[in-house]
Design brief:
Blueprint (H helix, E strand, L loop, with lengths): L2 E6 L3 E8 L2 E8 L2 E3 L4 E2 L2 E2 L2 E4 L2 E5 L1 H5 L17 H12 L5 E5 L7 H8 L1
Parallel strand pairs: 1-9
Antiparallel strand pairs: 1-2, 2-3, 4-8, 5-6, 7-8
Amino acid sequence: MDVLGIDTGYGYTKSFTVVSEIQKKLIFPTLVSLYTQEFSFGSKIGTTMVNGKKYAAGELLMVNQLPCETTREDFVGSPSYMPILRYVFSKTNFQGNVMVTGFPPTFYRRKGRKNFQN
């Protein structure tokens, strides 16, 4: 079974994939930016549209010193959270059908969990 696990933390997001018994992990800073540029210092930074706004995520934001948003109490399920998930999918090329997420304990709330499951 192909599986993708994602743990979005305050400082870093960690992911682990198992595809055809091949294991792969990815660790990157949990950084998100509303993004307008397409290139910065020659590096193409991938973007994701969420609710009509363009976001970028990942280590290139820090490398290129772009203004970033990090995790906050209402981060999980927010428009800023979605680019983190998209970044993991783009870097891992995951095509499976099982994704498991882990949230920092302060993000866990019964109401938040219910909203995420819907």
